[in-house]
Amino acid sequence: MPSIVAALIALIAGACIAAYLYYKRGAKFPWDLALLRFLWFGLLVYAIVAPPYETEVEDKVKPHLTVLVDTSASLGLNGDSLMDHASEPFVSLGYHVDLNDFAEKHIPSQSNWAYVGDGHIPSISGKNTPLYYSLHPSQKLEPSSLIQGIVVPPKVLAGSLVNIRALVNPECEVTLSFNGDNHRGRLWTTNAPLDTGYMPLQVIASLDGRKDVLETSIQVSGSLATILIVRNEPHPHEGMIRRICRKKGIAVKTVNWSELNRIKTFSGPIITLGGSKDALVRLEKVSKVPALHLDITGANTYANNNLLTHSLFDYSVQVYHGKGIPTIKISDKSIDARGIHWYKSALEDPRSLSAFEQLIKLVLERYEPVQLMLTLPQQAQTGERIHVSAAAVNSRSEAIPATITGYVRLQDKVTENLTDRSEGLSMNSSFIPHVPGSYMVVVEGKTEFGTIENMATVQVNDVDIESVRTFNTVQFNFWKSEGSQLLSMVEEKVLPESIIYKKEIPQHLHWWYWGIVLFAATSEWTIRRSRGLV
Predict the structure, then answer these.
(1) Which of 17, 68, 155, 211 is deepest in the core (most CB within 10 A)?
(2) CATH superfamily, domain at 150-222
(3) Whether 214 contacts 463, CB under 8 Å
(4) Tell me, what's the pLDDT at 26?
Protein backbone atom coordinates (compact mmCIF):
# COMPACT_ATOMS: atom_id res chain seq x y z
CA MET A 1 0.00 0.00 0.00
CA PRO A 2 1.43 3.44 -0.93
CA SER A 3 2.13 5.87 1.89
CA ILE A 4 -0.28 8.49 0.48
CA VAL A 5 -3.17 6.02 0.59
CA ALA A 6 -2.25 5.10 4.16
CA ALA A 7 -2.23 8.81 5.08
CA LEU A 8 -5.68 9.35 3.55
CA ILE A 9 -7.04 6.36 5.45
CA ALA A 10 -5.54 7.72 8.67
CA LEU A 11 -7.01 11.22 8.08
CA ILE A 12 -10.46 9.84 7.31
CA ALA A 13 -10.38 7.48 10.29
CA GLY A 14 -9.22 10.26 12.64
CA ALA A 15 -11.88 12.67 11.37
CA CYS A 16 -14.63 10.09 11.62
CA ILE A 17 -13.85 9.10 15.20
CA ALA A 18 -13.49 12.74 16.28
CA ALA A 19 -16.82 13.67 14.66
CA TYR A 20 -18.55 10.64 16.12
CA LEU A 21 -17.42 11.48 19.67
CA TYR A 22 -17.77 15.23 19.76
CA TYR A 23 -20.28 16.36 17.11
CA LYS A 24 -23.38 17.92 18.78
CA ARG A 25 -21.91 17.47 22.26
CA GLY A 26 -23.22 20.88 23.20
CA ALA A 27 -23.94 24.37 21.99
CA LYS A 28 -20.25 24.92 21.53
CA PHE A 29 -18.21 22.32 19.55
CA PRO A 30 -15.10 21.12 21.53
CA TRP A 31 -12.53 21.78 18.85
CA ASP A 32 -9.61 21.12 21.21
CA LEU A 33 -10.79 17.62 22.13
CA ALA A 34 -11.74 16.79 18.55
CA LEU A 35 -8.34 17.87 17.24
CA LEU A 36 -6.50 15.87 19.90
CA ARG A 37 -8.59 12.75 19.14
CA PHE A 38 -8.12 13.30 15.41
CA LEU A 39 -4.33 13.63 15.93
CA TRP A 40 -3.54 10.62 18.06
CA PHE A 41 -6.08 8.26 16.49
CA GLY A 42 -4.98 9.22 12.97
CA LEU A 43 -1.34 8.62 13.91
CA LEU A 44 -2.28 5.25 15.40
CA VAL A 45 -4.15 4.18 12.24
CA TYR A 46 -1.27 5.37 10.07
CA ALA A 47 1.17 3.28 12.13
CA ILE A 48 -1.01 0.24 11.43
CA VAL A 49 -1.58 0.62 7.69
CA ALA A 50 1.50 2.54 6.50
CA PRO A 51 4.07 0.43 4.57
CA PRO A 52 7.69 0.24 5.83
CA TYR A 53 10.37 2.04 3.89
CA GLU A 54 13.50 0.30 2.55
CA THR A 55 17.04 1.38 3.31
CA GLU A 56 20.46 -0.11 2.52
CA VAL A 57 22.42 -1.32 5.53
CA GLU A 58 26.13 -2.21 5.51
CA ASP A 59 27.50 -4.57 8.16
CA LYS A 60 31.12 -5.49 8.78
CA VAL A 61 31.45 -9.24 9.40
CA LYS A 62 34.61 -11.10 10.44
CA PRO A 63 35.52 -13.95 8.05
CA HIS A 64 34.75 -17.41 9.42
CA LEU A 65 37.57 -19.91 10.14
CA THR A 66 37.28 -23.46 11.47
CA VAL A 67 40.28 -24.36 13.64
CA LEU A 68 40.88 -28.10 14.13
CA VAL A 69 43.12 -28.88 17.09
CA ASP A 70 45.10 -32.14 17.24
CA THR A 71 45.17 -33.07 20.94
CA SER A 72 46.32 -36.68 20.42
CA ALA A 73 48.72 -38.51 22.72
CA SER A 74 51.74 -37.63 20.57
CA LEU A 75 51.41 -33.93 21.47
CA GLY A 76 54.27 -32.66 23.60
CA LEU A 77 52.12 -30.27 25.67
CA ASN A 78 48.80 -30.33 27.47
CA GLY A 79 46.00 -30.86 24.97
CA ASP A 80 43.39 -28.94 27.00
CA SER A 81 45.73 -25.96 27.29
CA LEU A 82 46.33 -25.98 23.54
CA MET A 83 42.58 -26.15 22.89
CA ASP A 84 41.96 -23.21 25.23
CA HIS A 85 44.47 -20.94 23.48
CA ALA A 86 44.32 -22.26 19.90
CA SER A 87 41.90 -19.58 18.72
CA GLU A 88 43.83 -16.56 20.04
CA PRO A 89 46.30 -16.05 17.14
CA PHE A 90 43.51 -16.43 14.59
CA VAL A 91 41.25 -13.98 16.44
CA SER A 92 44.11 -11.47 16.46
CA LEU A 93 44.30 -11.85 12.67
CA GLY A 94 40.66 -10.81 12.44
CA TYR A 95 38.81 -14.14 12.19
CA HIS A 96 35.66 -15.41 13.82
CA VAL A 97 36.85 -18.83 15.04
CA ASP A 98 35.03 -22.14 15.53
CA LEU A 99 37.09 -24.75 17.44
CA ASN A 100 36.84 -28.50 17.02
CA ASP A 101 38.96 -31.63 17.49
CA PHE A 102 41.10 -32.61 14.52
CA ALA A 103 39.54 -35.49 12.60
CA GLU A 104 39.07 -36.15 8.91
CA LYS A 105 35.28 -36.00 9.30
CA HIS A 106 35.50 -32.50 10.81
CA ILE A 107 37.35 -30.97 7.83
CA PRO A 108 34.92 -28.58 6.07
CA SER A 109 34.30 -29.39 2.44
CA GLN A 110 34.58 -25.80 1.15
CA SER A 111 35.03 -23.18 3.89
CA ASN A 112 38.42 -22.13 5.27
CA TRP A 113 40.02 -24.08 8.09
CA ALA A 114 43.33 -24.31 9.96
CA TYR A 115 45.30 -27.18 11.52
CA VAL A 116 46.84 -26.85 15.00
CA GLY A 117 48.93 -29.71 16.39
CA ASP A 118 52.25 -31.56 16.20
CA GLY A 119 51.88 -32.83 12.61
CA HIS A 120 51.89 -36.53 13.56
CA ILE A 121 48.75 -37.30 11.59
CA PRO A 122 47.60 -39.89 9.04
CA SER A 123 47.61 -39.00 5.36
CA ILE A 124 44.50 -37.19 4.17
CA SER A 125 43.51 -37.21 0.52
CA GLY A 126 40.69 -35.62 -1.40
CA LYS A 127 39.94 -33.05 1.29
CA ASN A 128 39.91 -29.26 1.46
CA THR A 129 43.44 -27.85 1.99
CA PRO A 130 43.86 -25.79 5.20
CA LEU A 131 44.45 -22.06 4.91
CA TYR A 132 46.94 -22.15 7.82
CA TYR A 133 48.76 -24.72 9.90
CA SER A 134 50.35 -24.19 13.32
CA LEU A 135 52.91 -26.74 14.55
CA HIS A 136 53.72 -27.54 18.18
CA PRO A 137 56.23 -29.89 19.88
CA SER A 138 55.55 -33.62 20.02
CA GLN A 139 56.39 -36.42 22.43
CA LYS A 140 59.49 -38.53 21.88
CA LEU A 141 58.58 -41.43 19.61
CA GLU A 142 58.81 -45.05 20.67
CA PRO A 143 61.48 -47.12 18.88
CA SER A 144 60.30 -48.53 15.56
CA SER A 145 59.49 -52.22 15.20
CA LEU A 146 62.41 -54.64 14.95
CA ILE A 147 60.62 -56.53 12.15
CA GLN A 148 59.83 -54.79 8.88
CA GLY A 149 58.16 -57.74 7.16
CA ILE A 150 58.35 -61.32 5.91
CA VAL A 151 59.21 -62.30 2.34
CA VAL A 152 57.57 -65.62 1.50
CA PRO A 153 55.46 -67.01 -1.39
CA PRO A 154 51.74 -66.64 -0.63
CA LYS A 155 51.06 -70.10 -2.13
CA VAL A 156 53.35 -73.15 -2.25
CA LEU A 157 53.07 -76.77 -3.30
CA ALA A 158 52.66 -79.39 -0.58
CA GLY A 159 56.06 -80.90 0.26
CA SER A 160 57.98 -78.39 -1.86
CA LEU A 161 60.88 -76.22 -0.74
CA VAL A 162 59.93 -72.86 0.78
CA ASN A 163 62.36 -69.94 0.96
CA ILE A 164 61.64 -67.70 3.95
CA ARG A 165 63.31 -64.35 4.56
CA ALA A 166 62.66 -62.12 7.55
CA LEU A 167 63.30 -58.38 7.14
CA VAL A 168 64.66 -57.44 10.56
CA ASN A 169 67.19 -55.20 12.24
CA PRO A 170 70.60 -56.77 11.44
CA GLU A 171 71.58 -56.75 15.13
CA CYS A 172 68.58 -58.83 16.22
CA GLU A 173 68.43 -62.45 17.24
CA VAL A 174 65.81 -64.03 14.97
CA THR A 175 63.76 -67.20 15.37
CA LEU A 176 61.52 -68.48 12.57
CA SER A 177 58.72 -70.96 13.33
CA PHE A 178 56.91 -72.89 10.60
CA ASN A 179 55.28 -76.31 10.38
CA GLY A 180 56.26 -77.20 13.94
CA ASP A 181 59.98 -76.47 13.39
CA ASN A 182 62.12 -73.57 14.62
CA HIS A 183 65.09 -71.99 12.89
CA ARG A 184 67.53 -69.40 14.23
CA GLY A 185 68.40 -66.86 11.56
CA ARG A 186 66.65 -64.56 9.13
CA LEU A 187 67.00 -66.88 6.09
CA TRP A 188 65.49 -70.35 6.02
CA THR A 189 64.84 -72.92 3.29
CA THR A 190 62.51 -75.64 4.50
CA ASN A 191 59.89 -78.04 3.21
CA ALA A 192 56.20 -77.23 3.14
CA PRO A 193 53.99 -79.73 4.97
CA LEU A 194 52.17 -82.45 3.08
CA ASP A 195 48.86 -81.30 4.55
CA THR A 196 47.09 -78.57 2.60
CA GLY A 197 45.57 -75.38 3.98
CA TYR A 198 46.76 -72.10 5.47
CA MET A 199 49.85 -72.68 7.64
CA PRO A 200 51.05 -70.04 10.15
CA LEU A 201 54.56 -68.60 9.97
CA GLN A 202 55.98 -66.69 12.94
CA VAL A 203 59.05 -64.46 13.24
CA ILE A 204 60.43 -63.49 16.66
CA ALA A 205 63.14 -60.81 16.88
CA SER A 206 64.97 -59.87 20.10
CA LEU A 207 67.39 -57.02 20.82
CA ASP A 208 68.52 -55.56 24.16
CA GLY A 209 65.54 -56.87 26.06
CA ARG A 210 63.03 -55.86 23.38
CA LYS A 211 60.98 -58.52 21.65
CA ASP A 212 58.85 -58.17 18.52
CA VAL A 213 56.63 -60.84 16.97
CA LEU A 214 55.15 -60.91 13.47
CA GLU A 215 52.92 -63.62 12.03
CA THR A 216 51.66 -64.39 8.54
CA SER A 217 50.27 -67.42 6.75
CA ILE A 218 51.20 -69.48 3.69
CA GLN A 219 48.67 -71.35 1.59
CA VAL A 220 49.82 -74.92 1.04
CA SER A 221 48.13 -76.46 -1.98
CA GLY A 222 48.12 -79.93 -3.47
CA SER A 223 48.76 -78.40 -6.89
CA LEU A 224 49.47 -75.00 -8.33
CA ALA A 225 47.27 -75.61 -11.39
CA THR A 226 45.12 -78.32 -12.97
CA ILE A 227 45.07 -79.68 -16.53
CA LEU A 228 42.15 -81.62 -17.95
CA ILE A 229 42.85 -84.42 -20.46
CA VAL A 230 40.00 -85.37 -22.78
CA ARG A 231 40.44 -88.89 -24.21
CA ASN A 232 38.72 -92.24 -24.48
CA GLU A 233 41.65 -94.47 -23.56
CA PRO A 234 45.20 -94.07 -22.17
CA HIS A 235 48.00 -93.17 -24.57
CA PRO A 236 51.78 -92.64 -24.20
CA HIS A 237 51.14 -88.92 -24.72
CA GLU A 238 49.07 -88.94 -21.51
CA GLY A 239 51.96 -90.52 -19.65
CA MET A 240 54.31 -87.77 -20.88
CA ILE A 241 51.81 -85.11 -19.76
CA ARG A 242 51.45 -86.64 -16.29
CA ARG A 243 55.23 -86.89 -15.74
CA ILE A 244 55.77 -83.26 -16.77
CA CYS A 245 52.85 -82.04 -14.61
CA ARG A 246 53.99 -84.05 -11.59
CA LYS A 247 57.40 -82.43 -11.83
CA LYS A 248 55.84 -78.93 -12.00
CA GLY A 249 53.23 -79.43 -9.29
CA ILE A 250 50.31 -79.49 -11.70
CA ALA A 251 47.31 -81.73 -11.08
CA VAL A 252 45.81 -83.79 -13.92
CA LYS A 253 42.18 -84.80 -14.39
CA THR A 254 40.65 -86.86 -17.20
CA VAL A 255 37.23 -87.12 -18.85
CA ASN A 256 35.98 -89.17 -21.79
CA TRP A 257 34.83 -87.60 -25.03
CA SER A 258 31.28 -88.67 -24.12
CA GLU A 259 31.43 -86.51 -20.97
CA LEU A 260 31.95 -83.09 -22.57
CA ASN A 261 29.11 -81.62 -20.50
CA ARG A 262 31.38 -81.95 -17.42
CA ILE A 263 33.87 -79.52 -18.97
CA LYS A 264 31.55 -76.59 -18.18
CA THR A 265 32.49 -76.89 -14.51
CA PHE A 266 36.23 -77.02 -15.22
CA SER A 267 38.30 -73.82 -15.38
CA GLY A 268 41.81 -75.09 -16.23
CA PRO A 269 43.45 -75.59 -19.65
CA ILE A 270 42.50 -78.65 -21.71
CA ILE A 271 44.60 -81.19 -23.65
CA THR A 272 42.75 -83.39 -26.12
CA LEU A 273 43.94 -86.81 -27.27
CA GLY A 274 42.26 -87.74 -30.54
CA GLY A 275 38.62 -86.87 -31.01
CA SER A 276 36.56 -86.51 -34.16
CA LYS A 277 36.00 -83.25 -35.98
CA ASP A 278 32.47 -83.01 -34.58
CA ALA A 279 33.75 -83.67 -31.06
CA LEU A 280 36.29 -80.85 -31.34
CA VAL A 281 33.55 -78.48 -32.56
CA ARG A 282 31.39 -79.42 -29.55
CA LEU A 283 34.38 -78.88 -27.28
CA GLU A 284 34.86 -75.33 -28.54
CA LYS A 285 31.18 -74.60 -27.85
CA VAL A 286 31.22 -75.74 -24.21
CA SER A 287 34.71 -74.52 -23.22
CA LYS A 288 36.19 -71.02 -22.99
CA VAL A 289 39.70 -72.11 -21.99
CA PRO A 290 42.70 -72.73 -24.28
CA ALA A 291 43.31 -76.25 -25.58
CA LEU A 292 46.24 -78.30 -26.88
CA HIS A 293 45.27 -80.93 -29.46
CA LEU A 294 47.35 -84.15 -29.81
CA ASP A 295 46.92 -87.38 -31.79
CA ILE A 296 46.49 -90.92 -30.44
CA THR A 297 47.37 -92.89 -33.57
CA GLY A 298 49.80 -95.76 -33.07
CA ALA A 299 53.56 -95.20 -33.42
CA ASN A 300 53.80 -97.33 -36.57
CA THR A 301 51.58 -94.86 -38.41
CA TYR A 302 54.23 -92.13 -38.08
CA ALA A 303 57.00 -93.43 -40.31
CA ASN A 304 58.34 -90.11 -41.57
CA ASN A 305 61.20 -88.53 -39.64
CA ASN A 306 61.97 -84.88 -40.40
CA LEU A 307 63.06 -81.68 -38.74
CA LEU A 308 60.41 -79.49 -37.14
CA THR A 309 61.18 -75.80 -36.88
CA HIS A 310 58.90 -73.29 -35.16
CA SER A 311 59.22 -69.88 -33.53
CA LEU A 312 58.27 -71.51 -30.21
CA PHE A 313 61.65 -73.26 -30.11
CA ASP A 314 65.17 -71.92 -30.36
CA TYR A 315 66.22 -75.15 -32.06
CA SER A 316 65.10 -77.66 -34.66
CA VAL A 317 63.47 -80.88 -33.47
CA GLN A 318 63.66 -84.29 -35.14
CA VAL A 319 60.13 -85.71 -35.04
CA TYR A 320 58.15 -88.67 -36.37
CA HIS A 321 55.07 -87.48 -38.21
CA GLY A 322 52.44 -88.48 -40.71
CA LYS A 323 52.01 -87.23 -44.24
CA GLY A 324 53.22 -83.83 -45.33
CA ILE A 325 55.50 -81.45 -43.44
CA PRO A 326 55.44 -81.53 -39.61
CA THR A 327 53.96 -78.31 -38.25
CA ILE A 328 52.28 -76.73 -35.22
CA LYS A 329 49.27 -74.47 -35.77
CA ILE A 330 48.56 -71.80 -33.16
CA SER A 331 45.29 -69.84 -33.07
CA ASP A 332 43.61 -67.65 -30.49
CA LYS A 333 41.75 -70.57 -28.93
CA SER A 334 43.95 -73.60 -29.48
CA ILE A 335 47.35 -75.11 -30.23
CA ASP A 336 47.14 -77.86 -32.85
CA ALA A 337 50.12 -80.23 -32.52
CA ARG A 338 48.46 -83.23 -34.17
CA GLY A 339 50.20 -85.26 -36.85
CA ILE A 340 53.29 -85.81 -34.66
CA HIS A 341 54.03 -88.77 -32.40
CA TRP A 342 55.76 -86.94 -29.55
CA TYR A 343 56.45 -90.03 -27.46
CA LYS A 344 58.23 -91.88 -30.31
CA SER A 345 60.12 -88.69 -31.19
CA ALA A 346 61.27 -88.13 -27.60
CA LEU A 347 62.75 -91.62 -27.42
CA GLU A 348 65.27 -90.70 -30.13
CA ASP A 349 65.70 -86.93 -29.70
CA PRO A 350 65.72 -85.41 -26.15
CA ARG A 351 64.94 -82.03 -27.73
CA SER A 352 61.55 -83.43 -28.74
CA LEU A 353 60.74 -83.88 -25.04
CA SER A 354 61.85 -80.29 -24.36
CA ALA A 355 59.64 -79.10 -27.21
CA PHE A 356 56.70 -81.06 -25.78
CA GLU A 357 57.28 -79.44 -22.37
CA GLN A 358 57.26 -76.07 -24.12
CA LEU A 359 53.82 -76.86 -25.55
CA ILE A 360 52.52 -77.72 -22.06
CA LYS A 361 53.99 -74.47 -20.74
CA LEU A 362 52.38 -72.49 -23.56
CA VAL A 363 48.89 -73.82 -22.93
CA LEU A 364 49.30 -73.02 -19.22
CA GLU A 365 50.43 -69.49 -20.03
CA ARG A 366 47.43 -69.01 -22.31
CA TYR A 367 45.07 -70.04 -19.55
CA GLU A 368 43.82 -67.09 -17.54
CA PRO A 369 43.26 -68.35 -14.01
CA VAL A 370 41.22 -65.94 -11.96
CA GLN A 371 42.88 -64.96 -8.70
CA LEU A 372 41.72 -62.66 -5.94
CA MET A 373 44.63 -60.35 -5.15
CA LEU A 374 44.57 -59.02 -1.59
CA THR A 375 46.80 -56.15 -0.48
CA LEU A 376 47.24 -54.98 3.12
CA PRO A 377 50.16 -54.34 5.51
CA GLN A 378 51.76 -57.20 7.40
CA GLN A 379 51.72 -55.33 10.71
CA ALA A 380 50.14 -52.25 12.27
CA GLN A 381 49.59 -50.58 15.64
CA THR A 382 46.43 -50.39 17.71
CA GLY A 383 44.34 -47.44 16.61
CA GLU A 384 45.97 -47.29 13.16
CA ARG A 385 43.65 -47.43 10.17
CA ILE A 386 44.46 -50.48 8.03
CA HIS A 387 43.63 -50.12 4.36
CA VAL A 388 42.53 -53.22 2.44
CA SER A 389 42.44 -53.51 -1.34
CA ALA A 390 41.19 -56.51 -3.31
CA ALA A 391 40.68 -57.20 -7.00
CA ALA A 392 39.99 -60.23 -9.17
CA VAL A 393 42.68 -60.58 -11.85
CA ASN A 394 43.55 -62.95 -14.67
CA SER A 395 46.96 -64.43 -15.50
CA ARG A 396 48.06 -61.13 -17.09
CA SER A 397 47.26 -59.31 -13.83
CA GLU A 398 44.38 -57.51 -15.53
CA ALA A 399 41.45 -56.69 -13.27
CA ILE A 400 38.15 -58.31 -14.22
CA PRO A 401 34.59 -57.53 -13.02
CA ALA A 402 33.76 -59.10 -9.67
CA THR A 403 31.52 -58.59 -6.65
CA ILE A 404 33.87 -58.63 -3.67
CA THR A 405 32.91 -58.90 -0.02
CA GLY A 406 35.03 -59.43 3.06
CA TYR A 407 35.28 -59.48 6.82
CA VAL A 408 37.89 -59.22 9.58
CA ARG A 409 38.37 -62.02 12.10
CA LEU A 410 40.27 -62.01 15.38
CA GLN A 411 40.77 -65.57 16.60
CA ASP A 412 37.34 -67.17 16.00
CA LYS A 413 35.27 -63.98 16.20
CA VAL A 414 34.33 -61.74 13.27
CA THR A 415 35.10 -58.22 14.46
CA GLU A 416 33.58 -56.36 11.52
CA ASN A 417 32.53 -56.63 7.90
CA LEU A 418 34.49 -54.69 5.32
CA THR A 419 32.49 -51.86 3.76
CA ASP A 420 33.11 -51.73 0.04
CA ARG A 421 34.22 -48.39 -1.41
CA SER A 422 34.42 -49.62 -5.01
CA GLU A 423 36.90 -47.82 -7.23
CA GLY A 424 36.73 -49.15 -10.75
CA LEU A 425 37.20 -52.93 -10.67
CA SER A 426 38.76 -53.10 -7.19
CA MET A 427 37.36 -53.10 -3.68
CA ASN A 428 38.91 -50.65 -1.25
CA SER A 429 38.03 -50.69 2.41
CA SER A 430 39.61 -50.13 5.81
CA PHE A 431 39.22 -50.90 9.49
CA ILE A 432 40.74 -49.74 12.78
CA PRO A 433 41.85 -52.44 15.26
CA HIS A 434 41.44 -51.45 18.89
CA VAL A 435 43.06 -54.46 20.56
CA PRO A 436 46.35 -56.19 19.70
CA GLY A 437 46.42 -59.59 18.04
CA SER A 438 46.67 -61.43 14.75
CA TYR A 439 43.79 -60.32 12.52
CA MET A 440 42.69 -62.46 9.59
CA VAL A 441 41.25 -60.56 6.62
CA VAL A 442 39.07 -62.78 4.43
CA VAL A 443 37.70 -61.65 1.06
CA GLU A 444 35.46 -63.44 -1.42
CA GLY A 445 34.94 -62.52 -5.05
CA LYS A 446 32.13 -63.64 -7.32
CA THR A 447 33.09 -63.62 -11.01
CA GLU A 448 31.66 -65.09 -14.19
CA PHE A 449 34.14 -67.95 -13.72
CA GLY A 450 32.92 -68.79 -10.21
CA THR A 451 33.61 -67.81 -6.61
CA ILE A 452 37.19 -67.33 -5.39
CA GLU A 453 38.54 -66.58 -1.93
CA ASN A 454 41.72 -65.23 -0.42
CA MET A 455 42.89 -64.36 3.05
CA ALA A 456 45.84 -62.71 4.74
CA THR A 457 46.90 -61.84 8.27
CA VAL A 458 47.99 -58.53 9.75
CA GLN A 459 49.75 -58.44 13.10
CA VAL A 460 48.47 -55.60 15.32
CA ASN A 461 50.99 -54.67 17.98
CA ASP A 462 50.16 -53.48 21.49
CA VAL A 463 51.53 -50.02 20.75
CA ASP A 464 49.45 -46.85 20.44
CA ILE A 465 49.84 -45.52 16.92
CA GLU A 466 50.33 -42.03 18.35
CA SER A 467 53.55 -43.15 20.04
CA VAL A 468 55.17 -44.37 16.81
CA ARG A 469 53.60 -42.28 14.04
CA THR A 470 56.16 -39.85 12.65
CA PHE A 471 55.67 -36.31 11.38
CA ASN A 472 53.74 -36.50 8.11
CA THR A 473 56.19 -34.60 5.93
CA VAL A 474 54.49 -35.64 2.68
CA GLN A 475 51.12 -34.30 3.82
CA PHE A 476 52.45 -30.93 4.94
CA ASN A 477 54.57 -30.52 1.81
CA PHE A 478 51.44 -31.14 -0.22
CA TRP A 479 49.44 -28.62 1.80
CA LYS A 480 52.23 -26.09 1.39
CA SER A 481 52.29 -26.63 -2.38
CA GLU A 482 48.53 -26.01 -2.42
CA GLY A 483 48.96 -22.61 -0.74
CA SER A 484 48.67 -23.44 2.95
CA GLN A 485 50.65 -21.03 5.18
CA LEU A 486 52.59 -21.62 8.37
CA LEU A 487 50.85 -19.49 11.00
CA SER A 488 54.06 -18.11 12.50
CA MET A 489 54.94 -16.59 9.11
CA VAL A 490 51.63 -14.74 8.75
CA GLU A 491 51.56 -11.08 9.83
CA GLU A 492 48.93 -9.40 7.67
CA LYS A 493 45.47 -9.22 9.20
CA VAL A 494 42.39 -10.11 7.24
CA LEU A 495 39.84 -7.43 6.44
CA PRO A 496 36.25 -7.84 7.57
CA GLU A 497 33.75 -8.66 4.90
CA SER A 498 31.19 -5.98 3.97
CA ILE A 499 27.64 -7.23 3.72
CA ILE A 500 25.16 -4.79 2.17
CA TYR A 501 21.49 -5.64 2.34
CA LYS A 502 18.12 -3.92 2.21
CA LYS A 503 16.26 -3.50 5.48
CA GLU A 504 12.59 -2.64 5.91
CA ILE A 505 11.97 -0.09 8.67
CA PRO A 506 8.46 0.86 9.85
CA GLN A 507 7.74 4.57 9.26
CA HIS A 508 6.50 5.04 12.83
CA LEU A 509 9.66 3.60 14.39
CA HIS A 510 10.68 6.94 15.99
CA TRP A 511 10.44 8.13 19.59
CA TRP A 512 8.92 11.44 18.64
CA TYR A 513 6.11 9.75 16.71
CA TRP A 514 4.88 7.83 19.70
CA GLY A 515 5.62 10.81 21.91
CA ILE A 516 3.08 12.88 19.94
CA VAL A 517 0.54 10.05 20.14
CA LEU A 518 1.03 9.71 23.88
CA PHE A 519 0.93 13.51 24.43
CA ALA A 520 -2.25 13.94 22.40
CA ALA A 521 -4.03 11.00 24.05
CA THR A 522 -2.99 12.11 27.54
CA SER A 523 -3.99 15.71 26.89
CA GLU A 524 -7.43 14.64 25.61
CA TRP A 525 -8.00 12.46 28.63
CA THR A 526 -6.93 15.25 31.04
CA ILE A 527 -9.22 17.83 29.42
CA ARG A 528 -12.16 15.43 29.32
CA ARG A 529 -11.62 14.66 33.00
CA SER A 530 -11.49 18.36 33.90
CA ARG A 531 -14.79 18.92 32.08
CA GLY A 532 -16.49 15.99 33.65
CA LEU A 533 -16.69 13.97 30.41
CA VAL A 534 -14.97 10.90 31.80
Answers:
(1) 68
(2) Immunoglobulins (2.60.40.10)
(3) no
(4) 62
